[in-house]
Automatic annotation (TrEMBL):
Residues the entry annotates as binding Zn(2+): 255, 259, 285
GO molecular function: metal ion binding; metallocarboxypeptidase activity
EC number(s) given by UniProt: 3.4.17.19
Protein source organism: Aliiruegeria lutimaris
InterPro entries found in the cross-reference section: Peptidase_M32_Taq (IPR001333)
Protein name listed in UniProt: Metal-dependent carboxypeptidase
């Protein structure tokens, strides 16, 4: 066997173990008994030690030195293996395992503090998580920028400085649009009634099927914070329900279907290899956001959804498809990122991006974080945070150590804007298909031009290959201004 064949055989087993680790994480957030958390933390740490040892194994370097890339696929595989091996050899095994153990425990402590609305109860654990992640960043950065070292886990090739420049370019138009909408004096209609949670889940399934979710290789469960997990032949999603508000369930499902369809659609030739998954969280988010927003919140699809909602719930307090479209796209200064409208959403991300960069740089201490959050929120959203669960404690990302993850949400929105601009030209019948609930026909363009390629190309190159144009914030901002300008008579 060649060095390349030996290397790929070894890496496939490592990738399989990483899938098992992901399944343990899915179990922890869905069905694991609460009392099992300390044991699960030890299990996750033990598995992390095995995976870390394989990722940093000396024979990988030997195989990489001898392996030859016969084509673009092999070249991409070698690139990802080399990158992962380099990062793994820089991080001590004990630090990697301790990070896994502490962040597994931290999740439950955060959930309790969030329920009690008590940031001080979580602060000591959060300090420990932050300290461990900074140690990891120092190992990875080798004298460079700590935040960039962490960001590279989620969006290879990007830096905090380049993203800050992109976000600074977006901010004025977002703030101006938000202000114009709130000053318009127009308000959107609201759903009325109590919405049976079983009916919500049935409608959630129908929406998932409309967007092409493959239930033979996936499933939908409930979780406090919806997420997608797994890849290849086993890609699962979760959603949430609220009897007072069904949109959270419907659009959480569509959002996570976007993530999962990316994973389900990657070429089976790449199964259990480094390129057999989404290339980055920004590109991943582009899929979930275009499914949820540009397609799922379009006038065409909400027309179809309006009839499905009336069938599922009966009287909903809205008497036309047009009013329903306005309700789905209502703009308001809410506290919760995952419930934010398209206009406010990126302002949530910009807040978190700036704060986490300051945390990693050591310019902001954990004990000052809640006040810093509340001050920034008042400036950006015009309202005061009423409780920690609506503020600094609302997201699970920091408790589990995902520093560098948040900016990929806005980057994903930028990518989605570029992709949607191209999709509409390539599929001129897109609105007619959505109006009939045939969303999978529209997302087929994404499957063919982006999803099936997995991590074959770098993140930006993946999107540029699909669109044939360089990345720009303009398509997203133009889309937002046109859509919400029409809705609010601007």
């Amino acid at each position: 066997m060649t060095a390349y064949a030996n290397l790929m055989g070894f890496v496939r087993e490592t990738e399989a173990l990483k899938q098992v680790q992901g399944r343990l994480g899915w179990d922890q957030e869905t069905v694991m008994p609460r009392g099992a958390a300390p044991q699960r933390a030890e299990e996750m740490a033990a598995l992390d030690r095995v995976i870390h040892a394989r990722r940093s194994a000396p024979q990988i370097a030997e195989w990489l030195a001898e392996a030859e890339a016969g084509d673009d696929v092999a070249a991409a595989q070698l690139h990802h293996i080399r990158r992962e091996h380099d990062r793994a050899t820089k991080v001590p095994a004990d630090l990697s395992a301790e990070l896994t153990r502490v962040t597994s425990l931290s999740q439950g402590i955060w959930a309790d503090a969030r329920s009690a609305n008590d940031f001080t109860a979580f602060a000591p654990t959060f300090s420990e998580v932050l300290n461990l992640r900074r140690q990891e960043a120092e190992a990875l950065a080798t004298g460079g920028d700590l935040y960039d070292a962490l960001l590279d886990d989620y969006e290879p090739g990007e830096t905090g400085a380049t993203l800050a420049a992109m976000f600074d370019a977006m901010r004025p138009r977002l703030v101006a649009l938000r202000g114009a909408i709130l000053d318009s004096g127009k308000s959107a209609p609201k759903l009325q009634g109590i919405f049976d949670e079983t009916a919500q889940l049935r409608l959630s399934d129908a929406c998932a099927r409309a967007f092409g979710y493959d239930f033979e290789h996936g499933r939908i469960d409930k979780a406090v914070h919806p997420f997608s997990s797994g890849s290849g032949l086993d890609s699962r999603i979760t959603t949430r329900t609220d009897p007072a508000e069904p949109f959270g369930c419907i659009y959480s499902t569509i959002h996570e279907v976007g993530h999962s369809r990316y994973e389900q659609t990657v070429s089976p030739d790449y199964l259990l290899t480094p390129i057999g998954c989404g290339v980055s969280m920004g590109v991943h988010e582009s899929q979930s956001r275009i499914y949820e927003n540009q397609l799922g919140r379009s006038r065409a699809f909400t027309g179809w959804l309006y009839e499905r909602c009336r069938e599922a719930f009966g009287e909903i307090g809205i008497d036309s498809a047009e009013a329903f479209y306005a309700a789905v796209n209502a703009v308001h200064s809410g506290y919760i990122r995952t419930e934010a409208d398209e206009v406010h959403y990126n302002l949530h991300i910009l807040l978190r991006f700036d704060l986490e960069r300051a945390l990693i740089a050591g310019d902001l201490g954990v004990n000052d974080l809640e006040a810093a959050w509340n001050d920034r929120f008042r400036v950006d959203f015009g309202v005061a945070v009423d409780k920690p669960s609506n503020g600094v404690l609302q997201d699970v990302h920091w408790p589990v150590g995902l520093f560098g993850y948040f900016p990929t949400y806005t980057l994903g929105n930028v990518y989605a804007g570029c992709l949607f601009e191209t999709l509409r030209k390539a599929h001129p019948d897109w609105e007619h298909a959505l109006a009939e609930g045939r969303a999978a026909e529209v997302t087929g363009w994404l499957a063919e031009n982006l999803q099936r390629h997995g991590a074959l190309r770098a993140p930006r190159a993946t999107v540029e290959h699909a669109t044939g144009a360089p990345i720009s914030v303009e398509p997203l901002l133009d889309y937002l201004e046109a859509k919400f300008g029409a809705l609010y008579g601007l």
